[in-house]
Amino acid sequence: MAFENFGGDDRDAGGDGSGHPAGSSGRFGSAGGHRVAFGVPPRRTRVLAITIVIMAVLVVLFLLFDGVYTSYLWYHSVGAGPVYRTRTLTQIVLFLVFGALMAAAVGTNVWLAYRFRPPLTGVSMEQQALDRYRMGLAPFLAWILVGVSVLFGIAAGASSAGSWRTYMLWANAVPFGTEDPQFHKDVGFYVFTLPWLRHIQGFLVAAVLLSLLVSLLTHYLFAGVALTPPTGTRTAGRFLGSRATRAAQVHISVLLGCLVLVKAYAYWLDRYSLSVATSTITSGWAGPTYKDVHAVIPAKEILLVIAVLCALLFLGNAVRLLVRAQTPDIDRGGHVWALPALGVSLMVLAAVVIGGVYPLAVQQLQVNPSQGTKEAPYIQRNIDATRAAYGLDGVQPIPYPATTGAAKNQLSGDAKTVAQIPVVDPSVVSQAFDEQQGQGFYSFPDNLTVDRYQVGSKTQDTVIGVRGLKPSGVPGSQHTWIDDHLKYTHGYGVVAAKTDAVLADGSPDYVEQGLPDPGAPAGYEERVYFGPGLPDYSIVGGLPKAAPVEFDHPDNASPTSQQSTTYSGNGGVQVNSFMKKLLYAAKFREPKILLSNQVNRDSRIMYDRDPGQRVRAVAPWLTVDAAPYPVVEGGRILWVVDGYTSTAAYPYSTTTQLGGKVNYVRDAVKATVDAYDGTVTLYAWDESDPILKTWMKAFPGTVKPRSAISPDLLAHLRYPQDLFTAQRDLLGRYHVLTASEFFAGTEFWNVPADPTKDGADGPPPQSPSYVTLQMPGQSAPTFSLTSTLASANGGTLAAVMAVDSDPGPDYGKIRVLELPPGTTAPGPGQLQNTFRSTYASQLSAPKTVEGNLLTFPVGGGLLSVEPVYAPPLAGPTTAPLLKGVLVAFGGKTAYEPTLQQGLDEIFGGSSGATTGENPAPPGSTASPLPSGPQADALKKALADAVAAQNTAAAALAKSPPDWKTFGEAEQAVQQALARAQAIENGQPPPK
Q1: H or E stretch including 980?
Q2: Across 779-938, where does the E strand assignment appear?
Q3: Are 165 and 685 in contact (CB under 8 A)?
Q4: How confident is the model at residue 970 (pLDDT cuts 50, 70, 90)?
Q5: Under 8 Å CB-to-CB from 869, ≥6 apart: which residues?
Q6: How open is the CA angle 723-725-728, to the nearest 5 degrees?
Q7: In the prediction, which pLDDT does 585 show?
Q8: What is the mean pLDDT of residues 495-501?
């Protein structure tokens, strides 16, 4: 037997015995023996075209090199070179392996289709019409074969290179030590192995389908397949009474058999994928349901067997065709495709009936009439898996029958908690920070961070923010390339204020203002070259004797009213050569980087400066918390970034959103980014997490052990807010521990809307807050992250939830106080409505801002506190300052200038506890209104403030700015406002 005979017995027919038509001038020749002359372009045109192509290729190669090499330089600048090398090498290997496999599969099948083409004698009219294409392709067949193979290989290789995370998880997998309840496989199989098996399946489907398509096209082009049945004795004889030659049929039959085998492989994987899928019929839980276990999984197994049998029929059909090739008699009507066609029909019918109709019938006839009973075991699986996947398996709600009474000295047992109740809202006070501490060119984030620092002998909760650059503070005339990228390069220092106290005028009570004390060295490196909101890139550093060009901070004592500096650290990438300057000029599309004489051998370029962005680059397997926070530690400002390990492949666990869809998450890594040099350091936090262990195995040495965290840094670490928010959202349902109650859904809780905030689609969900409190079962007040949950039916308060955020033995312990049935307490929305109706005149004043509404379980009941802000009555200052505090306990409410006064009002003159705020001046009220001579003095103070503000604005608008006048005017503004506030509060004006 010889493959050459597949095309029929007339390959040697023709005028020259070559198997080609008479008059042929080559492999295919030309119709009628005439050569076809193609026009040749002039030599100059060809040279120009070749030059343009070469130039385009060189530009593309340069841009590719630019991206790869600058990434290499960046990773080495942060000490993460091994991460880049490991990831890049893995991507290259995957690209080459899968690209080569795809190219080999496609190329081999194209070659086989061409190799076993029939002779072009006595061809049909349809094939004669294709002669011109065959003649045009004839000189380029080898190039076309290579080009098509390489093209598909590149596409497959690029797709596989993008799946490097999936491969590395599979290659470095460690067991979870927990089995799923359906197939009794280790959870690691679903998290690490199944995704890689799915990738292999997808590659096989693509390889077989592409091979089939290019083979059919090649067979058609070279007369192995016809769209219309051939006519004529010689032509039809080769086609076995069909539209394809025997060789083409063998080839196609083998490929179809392989395709069906891949489908059988998919059916095998589908069974396991059900364990991580959300049901499309039932709602509220994930994983295989009764229908899946008793109908869908058996159906997949039956379909798997049918698919294997169908594949064997296709392969058997190829064998039959090969056997018939030995028979001299031609089977003109042999229905060799009858059995494979029957097999495909059976598989399609089974997929519809067994895979679709039967599960639907089971759902409708068996499950729906008694769904609660049928689904109970599977709901219980979902409850157990979800609580384990999100770290909620140890959470047990504690009944808390909140009292409605308010008696004198009732809060004495919770005096330590009351002493640190915050009256400063981190999302409101930012504007006051801007106006009082921004220094013109700087600003603070909209939401400040809550942390704790040692102030004197007390651990003080503080709101803290980094003074970052404010582009709007720079006059338009100074928005040149040098100003934007070489002069205004960094932020300056942190500013911190107490959370539980304000000054008499409602301004923040600062404990750190982040500007140097004249004549005294700073206590830490205050310059912030890495952080949110900085320019996309800055070029810093300079020659040793060159004058500093980077703006540092205003300084009234300086002749120029400002201080300048030159960066002297190791952050960023050195641009100390022409090549590096060229590469970065191309990267940022800015020729001035190459041409400016201010970019010299000592210059460094800083980019990708956001802390979260840097951590994601160094640890691309982490999900990064959305709120990095600053910490002053070891003489540096460090950004702390919480990193989560997560997956969406945990069996039976419900999916939620946390940087994407996930159904398992761990607080696995604490990362720091040095604000001065950008150094990224990763510390293992949850060292028992299997996903973290896997990635540490894949990137050895990248993550430091937890023991390497310094004590000073450890004291500032906290429980991440994004994780707590996800846990809170899930706990609204998954505090229910029995399947019957879960199915009924009557005990579910909702996350209440924040009644003090507005959003495009209504009030957003209430955000958790960092506070110091003592929950029942705690021995002392602890820095915690807390939130409330409301009942699903009426919006009344259902539970108070808090998690220990202080690093220590109880870090991450979630406590939930559940109000028993019959205990009625207003939820945030109801309580806010009460406040607004009771104190309508005070809260409806123009520009009044309602701060965050916090609830504390103290005194056997629930104490709610809400600060109220408003800007001064007139003048240039627009920042809202604290004007009063709303307080509620046991049905009683109060609105007073201070929290202490509000508590004493509710608890009969004395609450039994002292707050941490500064006492209000005697006789003050929530909104004092001066009159008579006081009113005139107030107007004069406000007028002076306006005049000083105008002077400051004029000094800032000059080019260059008059920093001395600006600083003096800003001081005058602050003095005038202090006089106005004192007059407004009934105090003597400051001297």
Answers
A1: helix 963-984
A2: 782-791, 797-804, 814-818, 849-850, 854-856, 863-870, 881-889, 892-896
A3: no
A4: low
A5: 425, 428, 506, 848, 849, 850, 851, 880, 881, 882, 883
A6: 110
A7: 95
A8: 93
Q: What residue type is 590 in one-letter code?
A: E
Q: Which residue has the tokens 């100059």?
A: 44
pLDDT-derived band of residue 92, with 50, 70 and 90 as boundaries? Answer: very high
In angstroms, rounded to a whole number, what is the distance separating the alpha carbons of residues 118 and 234?
12
Cα 131 to Cα 18: distance, rounded to the nearest angstrom: 17
pTM: 0.85
Tokens 């799923």 belong to which residue? 180
Task: Show the CA angle centred on residue 564, arms to residues 562 and 570, nearest 5°.
Answer: 150
CB 924 within 8 A of CB 897: yes
**CA–CA distances in Å: residue 793 to residues 167, 192, 283, 422, 834:** 47, 41, 19, 31, 19
CA 39-45-46 angle, 5° bins: 75
C-alpha dihedral, 402 to 403 to 404 to 409, nearest 10°: -120
Q: Is the pLDDT of residue 166 over 70?
A: yes
The yes-or-no verdict on residue 864 having pLDDT over 80 is: yes
- Asked if the bond preceding 960 is cis, omega within 30° of 0, the reply is yes
Count helices and strands (H / E) in the chain.
30, 32
pLDDT of residue 18: 40
Say whether 592 sits in a helix, a strand or coil.
Answer: helix
Instruction: Output the average pLDDT for the chain.
Output: 85
**pLDDT at residue number 542:** 84
For 301, the enclosing helix (H) or strand (E) is helix 297-324
How distant is the alpha carbon of residue 301 from its chain centre?
37
d(CA 347, CA 893): 72
Task: List Cα–Cα distances, 695 to 74, 108, 587, in angstroms.
Answer: 21, 38, 31
DSSP class of residue 126? H
Q: Is 455 exposed, middle or buried (0-12, 13-18, 19+ CB in 10 A)?
A: middle
Lookup: tokens for 990: 């400051």
Residue with tokens 């006059």: 475
Query: Are 512 and 450 in contact, with CB atoms under 8 Å apart?
Result: no
Confidence of residue 31 (pLDDT cuts 50, 70, 90): very low
